[in-house]
Fold:
Amino acid sequence: MKTPLIDNLQYANWSETIFHQMRAGGVDAVHVTIAYHESFREMVLNLESFNRWFERFPEIIFKGTSAADVRLAQETGRTAIFFGFQNPSPIEDDIGLVEICHQLGVRFMQLTYNNQSLLATGCYEDDDTGLTRMGKQVVQEMNRVGMVVDMSHSADRSTLEAIDHSRRPIAITHANPHWWHPALRNKSDEVLKALTGRGGILGFSVYPHHLKDGSACTLQSFCEMVAEAASRYGAEHLGIGTDLCQDQPDSIVEWMRVGRWSKVIDYGEGSANDAGFPPMPNWFNDNRDFGKISQGLLDVGFSKMEMDGIMGGNWYDFYDASFGAVK
Structure:
C-alpha cells in the first residue's frame, strides 16, 4: 500500500465541502483541533458535533484512534480524523481526565497555548518557568496512556523540559524554524535539535504568520526551508501540520487569542493590523493543494522516499509508536 498523506493539524470550519476536498486531495488522515479554551464538558460537546459529522458522512470520514485507522482510511477511500487539544483546559485541574480524554479518542494535547497554563509556559509569556509540578505529572500520565505531548505553542525552556521529562518522543505539530522566520511561535534550532534528537517530529505550518514573507511566501522558499531543516535534523523527523483554518470567520482568531482570560484582543502574532486571518499563500488554499507541496519537495532535491515520509509516512510511524498505552 502506498505511503499515506497526513496533515497533522487543521482547525477548519468543518463542512461537507471540506470533507470532500480532503478526499479530492487524497488526504488519508487529519489531526483536528477539538479544543482551544474549552472546559471538559464543552470539549465533549465538540466531540458530539464530530460524531454527527461521522454519522452524516460515513462514506468519506471516520474517527481515527490508531495507526491502523490510517491504513483503513486508505483501503476504504476515506479520511481518518484524529482529535487533539491546543490547550490543556479540558483536563481542568484533574490528572485523571487525561486517561478519560484518551478513552474518548483524544491523541494529542498541547501543554500550553500561548499563555502560562497549569502545566507549562506559553511562547508569549515574558518569563518561562518550565514545566510545573502538575505538568511533570501530566507528561508521565500522557506517556502512560498513549497521548502525545505537543509543544507547538510553548516557550523554549518548557519545551526542552518536556522533551527531557517525557519517556516517549514528543511532537511540535505545527510550527516552523525560527532561523527561517523569527515569529515568536516558531522554534529555535536548540529546541528542534533536542526534539528530533529524541525521536520527535516537527510538522511544518503554512499559516502565513509562521511563513517567511507571510502570505507572499513562495512554494520554493517553503520547500527550501524544509530541505535545510532536513540537513540539520534528518528528513525522517519532519512532517506537515498546515494549521489550516479554512473558512473560519475572523471572530475565531479572537477566540483563539483571547479565550476567557482577557477582555481585550491579544494580537500575539503581530500588530492590530493582523487581527483577522491573513490570506493563505497562493499555492495552498485547501486540502486539494497537497500535491503542490509534494512536487515542490521533489523540485528542491528530495528523493521520492524522503518526500513520501514528510508528506505522511513519518507521521504514520509516529502514530504507530505513540498512540498505545505503555505495556
Summary: The domain at 6-322 is CATH 3.20.20.140 (TIM Barrel). The longest strand covers residues 29-35. The chain has a mean pLDDT of 95. The chain has one domain: 6-322.
